[in-house]
Amino acid sequence: MKTSDFEKLMPELFGSWLQEFENEGEYSFTHKLEKKINVIAYATNLTPETVEKAHRSGADLLITHHDAWDFVYGMKDVCVDRLRKYHISHYFTHYPLDFVEFGTSTALFERIHIDEITTVSTFKDNQEFPGIGVFHTPLSFIELKERLERVMDEPIKAWENHDRSIKKVGILTGAGNQTSLIKYAKNHNCDAYITGEQSLYSVQYAKFAGIHFYVGSHTFTEIFGVENLVVRIQEFFPDVKAVKIQEDHMESC
Questions:
Q1: 190 and 211 in contact (C-beta within 8 Å)?
Q2: Three-point CA angle 167, 172, 177, nearest 5°
Q3: Which of 46, 84, 124, 242 is deepest in the core (most CB within 10 A)?
């Protein structure tokens, strides 16, 4: 696979989601070299550490969910300097990967072995909406917590807010801590809501609304969406090797 082949494949995989967020800084190359890509490294975040690990893995292309955002002051410049030094291209896809059918919330549903995804996460009218899924055999509060911890390999925070078993679940990975998102899950009769960040108000509202609230890390609720993307790239280019970059569990410390 060449860089140009990868670039042509992205519209095929993401369809209208690239048009939805065109010119909004939600996907792009941050450093682009036209070269043969033998090894893809992937991670949730673009950081100096993930670039270094990509270099050590022999990567020609690093794919991440997040850019090194401008509000993490100065980090993007360091990342781009290192990408240039190591001759590694970098591509990130943020909102398109959140809302494409195989994206971040769907991927977490898959990893916790949900039986049926009734609604995928989406974006419309300038608003995010969680995905919703159903367990055919309901889980207890503790069973779902333990399943999430096994999948993400990290401790998660969880608030038990009712005494029912869990059948219907809402997920919006990453920073899905707005009370409006929890309300959406509650209005759709979800027994639990899962995301990657919390606030005082999300904890308060989940308790008030009577819905179990599970919070993993932003990084590790979203890595499986990046993995799903890389798997799809390999379906088109099976000779390309994929390397998962292990990031620190700094949000759980």
A1: yes
A2: 110
A3: 46
**204's torsion region: left (phi>0), alpha (psi -120 to 50) or beta?**
alpha
Q: Is the pTM of this model over 0.90?
A: yes
Q: Could you read off the pLDDT of 16-31 as tens digits, one per residue? A: 999 999 999 999 999 9
**Residue 1 · residue 7 · CB < 8 Å:** no
- CATH class as words, domain 3-93: alpha beta
Predicted pLDDT at 252: 84
CA dihedral 207→213→216→221, nearest 10 degrees, is -140
Q: Please, are residues 145 and 215 in contact by the beta-carbon 8 Å criterion?
A: no
Tokens of 146: 């333990």
Beta strands in 150-247 (DSSP E): 157-159, 166-171, 192-195, 212-215, 241-244
Q: Calculate the alpha carbon distances from 249 to 10, 79, 191 in Å.
A: 29, 20, 27
Q: Does domain 101-220 have CATH number 3.40.1280.10?
A: no
